[in-house]
C-alpha cells in the first residue's frame, strides 16, 4: 500500500532517517518473520527453510501493509544451538511460533571445551539467510545481517537455565561461551560484508536474554557489555554504517549502563520493548533512532481500536524523539494476529504519522 | 530432645542456605535436623520454604533475578530431597493439602518461568503435578481429573502459543467448572487472562502462590453460597 | 476526474453517472470474521458483529459497497426446517440440517413464513438497520426463487419433481415467489422502497443442475413476476447473482426486469464480455474472479486475471463493479485479497471521463 500522501520512496525515507533528516512520515517497521508467510498462504516453517518464499512473502506483505524495510529479516542468520551442533527444527504445530530447539550442543560443563567454531558459510541456516540477503540485494533493499547479541547467543548454546546457573557459580564458562559466540557472529558478519560490501550491510542485533526479566543489571554490566563493545568495534572496523539493536523486553535497569557506554555509531536504530517508555528511551539515547513499541500481545489479542490507540500514542511520543522514530512492534510480530490489527498500525501511521 | 533455640537455629540456617543458594549447607543442615530429631515437616516449612518465600520477595524487589532464583531453587530441592522421605504420612500435609497441575502449553518450550512457579508452590507445601513443557492441550484436563487438583496453572511465552490457553481453560472448565485456572507467561496480562476465562493471573513466580490462594478462596465462597 | 469516496462512487453508479474508477463490490463474508479474529458463525448469527467485521475489513481492502447479510441456504429455516451455523475450520456458511418438506404431503402443510419473525429475518432486519445507520446500501439478501425452492425440499427432490411432478414444483415456486415479495414489502415499509436494493442469489438455476429449457419453464416466469412486483413497489434496483455456469440461461436472464440500472453479478464460469453482451445494456455488470484461484494462487495469476476482468468490465455501458465470482473462501490468504484492491488501483481508473 502506498499512501497517497507519501512524498518519499521507501529508500529515501530510510536514508533520511540515517541522515538525521525528518522523513515525510514516520516509517513503519514490523519485526515480522512468520505473519507474512501465513498472509501469503505459505507454511510458517518456510520462514526458516525457504528463502525464496520467505523473501517474497515479506516483500508482498510489506507492500500490502506499507511496511518499511527496517528491519526486514528472514530470521537471525546465526543460531547458538544449531550452529554449534545442537538439533533445531522448524515450527510444526499451530501453536509453535519459532524454531524449536530439540537438543543443545552443551549439555554439561565439559562440553564447553569440546566446542568447535562453526563454519561461517555453511553452519545451520546461514546458507538460507544468505540466499534471503542475496534476494534483498537483487531487489535494491537494505541487506540485513541479523544476529543475537553475543551474550544471548552464548546462552543459546547451553540453554538459558544452565547459563544462568553458571553466571553465579562458574562465570568463566559463560565468558568462554560469550567469546565463542562473538567470534562466530563476527565471522558470519564478515561473510556478509565480503559478499555485499560494507555499505550495503545493515547489521541488526537482538538481545532478549539480557532483559531484567532474566538477569540483573550487575550481570548485564559485567558479562554482556564487554562483548557488546567489542562487537561494535568490529562492526565499525568493517566499515558498516547501519546498525540496529533490539533491546528486548524489560531492560529499564540496563538503560543507564548502556547510555554511558554507547558503543555504537550515531544514529543507530534502537528498538525497545513495551516495558520501556518511549520518552525514557529518547531521553537516554537522543542521538539515535527510537523504534517501538507496540505490544505484540495487544496486536494478537486486542481490538483494532486498542492497537490504533496504542499506535497513536506511540507516534505522538516518538515524533518528539530528537534522533528520529520508527513505529513498530515491541518484540517479534505475532504470527496469527487478526489481520485487521495489522492494518490498524498502518492506518495509525496514515492518520497521524506525517511530519509537517 | 532438641532445644527450642537449636531448632530455631537450624530453621534459620536452612532459610539462609536457600537465600544464599548454598546447596551444601542446605544438605548438611537437613541431615543435622534429622539426626537431632527435628520434625522434618517443620524443617521444610519453617526452614527451606520460609527461605524460598524470602527469595520471592527479593525477586519482586528486583534484587534477585533468574540466575539467583534458579540456584535458590536448587538449594531448596537439595534439602527437600533429604527431608521429604522422613515426613510421616499423617503429617504429610503436602499430599493431602492443595494440589496444582502445571504446564507450558503445546508448541512452547520455554519452561524456566513455569519451573520457578513450581518451586514456589512446592515451597508453600502444595502438591505439584508438573506436566512439563509443550504439553498437549487435553493433558491438562486429564491430569486434573486424575489428581482432583483444585488449581490448573497454564503458561505460555509466545504470542502464538498463548492462543492455546483459552482452549485449555475451556476443556478444564467443561470437565469441572469448580477448578481454578491460573495463567501466566510473558505476553499475557491480567486483562488477557480474564478475557481467556481464567480465574487468576500471576505476572511472576513470587505472586503465583498468593494468587492461587485468592482463587481458592473465591471458589470456596462461591461453593458456600 | 476527481477522486470519489466509496459512497459517492456507489451513488454515481446506481444513478447511471460516471465514476472515477471501477468500484469494488464485496462477496466476502466468513473471511471478514477471520480478519477480525472472530469465528465465522458471527457473520450469520450476530448482526452487529457481522456488520462490524465487514465494515472494518472493507475499509482495509478498499471495498466500496457496504456490508451485506445473507447465505445461500436461505429458506430452509424460514419455512420450518433446521439449519446449522458453521463451526470448525472447514465450514464456510450455514448448512441444511432438516428440510421442511420431506414428502409431497408436507407441501400442503407449509405455511407462509411471517417475515417479521421467521428464521434469520429478524437478524437480517437488525443488519439492515445498521446499513441504514451507516449510510451503506440497504439490502436484503435471499436466495432466488428456485434456490429457495431447493432449500425447502432439497435439490435432488426438486430435480425429480421437475421431470415427474411439475405441478408440485410450480406450487413450491409460487410459495417462494410470494415469500420473496413479502420480504421486500416488509423492507420497503421499514426503509422506504426507493432505499432498498434486494439481492437474489441463484445458484440452483445453474446449467450444471437444470437445462435452459427447464429454466424457461420453471424459473423465468417467477423471476419476471417477482421483479416486476418489487419494482412496482418503488424499488429502483434489484441485484441478481447469477451463480455458477449459466451460460445457456443468459439470453433468458435478459428478459428479467431488474430496475434502472439493474445489477447482475456473475460466477467465474461466465466470461465478462459475454455477460456484457447479454445484459450490459440493462444492468451494471459485477464479477468475477474465481474464488478458488483466489484461495490457491499463485499471486501472479490472480493479478493477471484481475487485470483482464477489469479491462473487459470497464467497457460495460451501464458500468461495472469488480468482485469475486462467488464467495471468497474464509481461508483465502490476505495478500490474495489485497491483489484485487491493487488491480483496481492500477487498472480500474476511467481516464478521460
Commentary on this structure:
The complex is a heterotrimer of chains A (356), B (225) and C (353). Chain A has 16 helices and eight strands. Helix content of chain A is 48%, strand content 11%. The model of chain A has no long low-confidence stretch (mean pLDDT 94). In chain A, helix 8 (150-158) packs across helix 9, helix 8 (150-158) packs across helix 10 (171-196) and helix 9 packs across helix 10. Chain A is globular, with a radius of gyration of 19 Å. Chain B has two domains: 4-86, Methyltransferase, Methionine Synthase (B12-binding Domains), Chain A, domain 1 (Orthogonal Bundle); 99-223, 3-Layer(aba) Sandwich (Rossmann fold), CATH 3.40.50.280. In chain B, helix 7 (137-147) runs parallel beside helix 8 (165-175). Chain B is globular, with a radius of gyration of 18 Å. With 353 residues, chain C is α/β, with parallel strands linked by helices. Chain C has a single domain, classed as TIM Barrel. Chain C is 48% helix and 10% strand. Chain C contains 15 helices and eight strands. The interface between A and B is medium-sized, with 36 and 30 residues.
SSE map:
The complex is a heterotrimer of chains A (356), B (225) and C (353).
Chain A lengths: L9 H9 L16 H5 L6 H4 L1 H15 L14 H4 L3 E3 L10 E4 L5 H6 L11 H13 L4 E6 L1 H9 L1 H10 L1 H26 L4 E6 L10 H21 L4 E6 L7 H7 L7 E4 L5 H7 L4 E6 L1 H6 L2 H15 L6 E5 L9 H14 L4
Parallel strand pairs in A: 3-4, 4-5, 5-6, 6-7, 7-8
Antiparallel strand pairs in A: 1-2
Helix pairs in contact in A: 4-7, 8-9, 8-10, 9-10, 10-11, 15-16
Chain B lengths: L3 H16 L3 H13 L4 H21 L5 H18 L9 H4 L2 E7 L6 H12 L3 E9 L1 H11 L3 E5 L9 H11 L4 E5 L5 H6 L4 E2 L3 H20 L1
Parallel strand pairs in B: 1-2, 1-3, 3-4, 4-5
Helix pairs in contact in B: 1-2, 1-3, 1-4, 2-4, 3-4, 3-6, 6-10, 7-8
Chain C lengths: L5 H9 L15 H6 L6 H4 L1 H15 L20 E3 L10 E4 L5 H6 L11 H14 L6 E3 L1 H9 L1 H10 L1 H26 L7 E4 L9 H22 L5 E4 L7 H4 L8 E5 L5 H8 L3 E7 L1 H6 L2 H15 L6 E5 L9 H14 L6
Parallel strand pairs in C: 3-4, 4-5, 5-6, 6-7, 7-8
Antiparallel strand pairs in C: 1-2
Helix pairs in contact in C: 4-6, 7-8, 7-9, 8-9, 9-10, 14-15
Amino acid at each position: 500500500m502506498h499512501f497517497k500522501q507519501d512524498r518519499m520512496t521507501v529508500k529515501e525515507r530510510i536514508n533520511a532517517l540515517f541522515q538525521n533528516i525528518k522523513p515525510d512520515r514516520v516509517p513503519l517497521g514490523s519485526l515480522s518473520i512468520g505473519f507474512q508467510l501465513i498472509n501469503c498462504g505459505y507454511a510458517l516453517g518456510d520462514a526458516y527453510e525457504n528463502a525464496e518464499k520467505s523473501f517474497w512473502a515479506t516483500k508482498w506483505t510489506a507492500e500490502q501493509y506499507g511496511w518499511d524495510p527496517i528491519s526486514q529479516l528472514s530470521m537471525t542468520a546465526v543460531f547458538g544451538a544449531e550452529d554449534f551442533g545442537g538439533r533445531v527444527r522448524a515450527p510444526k504445530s499451530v501453536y509453535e511460533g519459532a524454531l524449536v530447539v530439540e537438543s543443545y550442543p552443551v549439555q554439561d560443563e565439559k562440553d564447553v571445551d569440546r566446542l568447535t567454531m562453526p563454519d561461517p558459510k555453511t553452519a545451520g541456516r546461514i546458507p538460507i539467510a544468505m540466499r534471503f540477503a542475496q534476494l534483498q540485494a537483487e531487489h535494491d533493499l537494505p541487506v540485513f545481517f541479523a544476529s543475537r547479541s553475543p551474550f544471548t547467543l552464548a546462552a543459546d548454546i547451553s540453554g538459558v537455565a544452565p547459563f544462568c546457573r553458571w553466571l553465579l557459580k562458574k562465570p568463566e564458562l559463560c565468558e568462554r561461551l560469550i567469546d565463542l559466540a562473538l567470534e562466530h557472529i563476527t565471522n558470519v558478519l564478515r561473510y556478509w560484508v565480503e559478499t555485499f560490501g560494507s555499505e550495503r550491510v545493515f547489521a541488526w542485533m537482538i538481545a532478549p536474554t539480557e532483559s531484567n526479566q532474566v538477569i540483573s543489571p550487575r550481570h548485564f554490566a559485567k558479562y554482556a557489555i564487554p562483548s557488546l563493545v567489542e562487537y561494535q568495534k568490529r562492526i565499525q572496523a568493517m566499515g558498516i554504517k547501519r546498525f540496529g539493536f533490539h533491546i528486548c523486553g524489560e531492560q529499564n535497569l540496563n538503560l543507564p549502563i548502556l547510555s554511558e557506554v554507547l558503543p555504537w555509531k550515531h544514529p543507530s536504530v534502537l528498538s525497545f520493548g513495551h516495558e520501556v517508555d518511549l520518552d525514557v528511551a529518547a531521553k537516554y539515547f537522543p542521538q539515535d533512532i527510537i523504534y517501538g513499541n507496540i505490544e505484540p500481545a495487544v496486536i494478537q489479542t486486542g481490538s483494532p481500536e486498542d492497537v490504533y490507540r496504542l499506535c497513536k500514542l506511540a507516534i505522538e511520543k516518538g515524533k518528539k524523539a530528537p534522533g528520529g522514530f520508527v513505529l513498530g512492534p515491541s518484540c517479534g510480530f505475532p504470527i496469527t494476529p487478526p489481520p485487521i490489527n495489522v492494518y490498524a498500525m498502518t492506518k495509525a501511521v496514515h492518520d497521524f504519522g506525517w511530519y509537517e | 530432645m532438641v532445644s527450642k533455640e537449636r531448632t530455631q537455629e537450624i530453621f534459620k540456617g536452612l532459610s539462609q542456605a536457600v537465600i544464599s543458594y548454598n546447596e551444601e549447607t542446605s544438605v548438611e543442615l537437613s541431615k543435622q535436623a534429622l539426626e537431632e530429631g527435628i520434625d522434618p515437616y517443620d524443617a521444610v516449612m519453617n526452614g527451606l520454604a520460609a527461605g524460598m518465600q524470602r527469595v520471592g520477595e527479593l525477586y519482586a524487589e528486583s534484587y534477585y533475578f533468574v540466575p539467583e532464583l534458579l540456584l535458590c531453587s536448587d538449594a531448596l530441592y537439595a534439602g527437600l530431597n533429604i527431608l521429604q522421605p522422613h515426613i510421616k504420612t499423617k503429617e504429610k500435609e503436602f499430599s493431602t493439602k492443595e494440589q496444582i497441575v502445571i504446564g507450558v502449553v503445546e508448541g512452547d518450550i520455554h519452561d524456566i518461568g513455569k519451573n520457578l512457579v513450581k518451586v514456589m508452590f512446592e515451597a508453600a507445601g502444595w502438591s505439584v503435578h508438573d506436566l512439563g513443557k509443550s504439553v498437549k492441550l487435553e493433558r491438562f484436563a486429564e491430569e486434573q481429573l486424575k489428581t482432583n487438583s483444585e488449581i490448573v496453572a497454564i503458561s505460555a511465552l509466545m504470542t502464538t502459543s498463548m492462543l492455546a490457553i483459552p482452549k485449555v481453560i475451556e476443556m478444564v472448565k467443561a470437565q469441572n467448572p469448580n477448578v481454578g485456572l491460573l495463567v501466566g507467561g510473558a505476553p499475557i496480562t491480567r486483562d488477557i487472562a480474564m478475557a481467556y476465562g481464567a480465574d487468576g493471573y500471576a505476572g511472576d513466580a513470587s505472586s503465583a502462590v498468593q494468587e492461587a490462594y485468592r482463587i481458592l478462596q473465591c471458589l470456596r465462597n462461591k461453593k458456600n453460597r | 476526474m476527481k477522486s470519489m469516496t466509496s459512497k459517492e462512487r456507489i451513488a454515481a453508479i446506481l444513478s447511471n453517472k460516471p465514476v472515477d474508477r471501477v468500484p469494488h463490490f464485496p462477496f466476502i463474508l466468513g473471511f471478514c470474521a477471520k480478519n477480525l479474529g472472530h469465528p465465522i458463525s458471527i457473520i450469520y448469527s450476530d448482526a452487529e458483529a457481522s456488520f462490524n467485521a465487514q465494515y472494518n475489513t472493507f475499509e482495509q481492502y478498499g471495498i466500496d459497497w457496504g456490508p451485506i447479510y445473507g447465505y445461500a441456504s436461505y429458506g430452509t429455516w424460514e419455512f420450518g426446517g433446521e439449519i446449522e451455523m458453521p463451526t470448525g475450520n472447514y465450514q464456510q456458511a450455514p448448512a441444511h440440517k432438516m428440510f421442511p418438506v420431506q414428502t409431497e404431503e408436507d407441501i400442503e402443510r407449509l405455511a407462509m413464513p411471517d417475515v417479521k419473525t421467521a428464521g434469520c429475518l429478524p437478524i437480517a432486519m437488525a443488519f439492515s438497520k445498521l446499513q441504514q445507520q451507516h449510510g451503506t446500501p440497504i439490502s436484503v439478501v435471499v436466495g432466488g426463487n428456485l434456490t429457495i425452492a431447493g432449500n425447502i425440499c432439497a435439490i435432488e427432490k426438486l430435480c425429480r419433481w421437475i421431470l415427474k411432478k411439475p405441478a408440485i414444483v410450480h406450487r413450491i415456486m409460487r410459495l417462494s415467489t410470494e415469500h420473496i415479495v413479502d420480504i421486500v414489502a416488509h423492507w420497503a415499509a421499514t426503509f422506504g422502497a426507493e432505499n432498498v436494493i434486494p439481492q437474489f442469489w441463484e445458484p440452483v438455476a445453474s446449467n450444471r443442475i437444470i437445462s435452459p429449457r427447464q429454466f424457461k419453464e420453471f424459473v423465468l416466469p417467477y423471476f419476471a413476476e417477482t421483479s416486476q412486483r418489487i419494482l412496482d413497489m418503488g424499488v429502483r434496483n434489484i441485484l441478481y447473482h447469477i451463480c455458477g455456469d449459466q451460460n445457456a440461461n443468459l439470453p433468458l436472464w435478459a428478459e428479467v426486469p431488474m430496475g434502472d440500472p439493474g445489477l447482475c453479478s456473475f460466477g467465474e464460469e461466465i466470461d465478462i464480455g459475454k455477460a456484457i453482451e447479454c445484459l450490459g445494456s440493462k444492468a451494471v455488470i459485477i464479477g468475477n474472479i474465481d474464488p478458488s484461484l483466489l484461495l490457491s494462487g499463485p499471486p501472479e495469476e490472480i493479478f493477471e486475471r484481475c487485470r483482464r476482468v477489469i479491462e473487459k468490465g470497464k467497457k460495460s455501458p451501464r458500468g461495472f463493479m469488480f468482485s469475486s465470482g462467488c464467495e471468497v473462501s474464509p481461508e483465502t490468504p490476505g495478500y490474495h485479497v489485497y491483489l484485487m484492491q491493487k488491480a483496481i488501483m492500477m487498472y480500474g481508473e476511467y481516464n478521460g471521463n
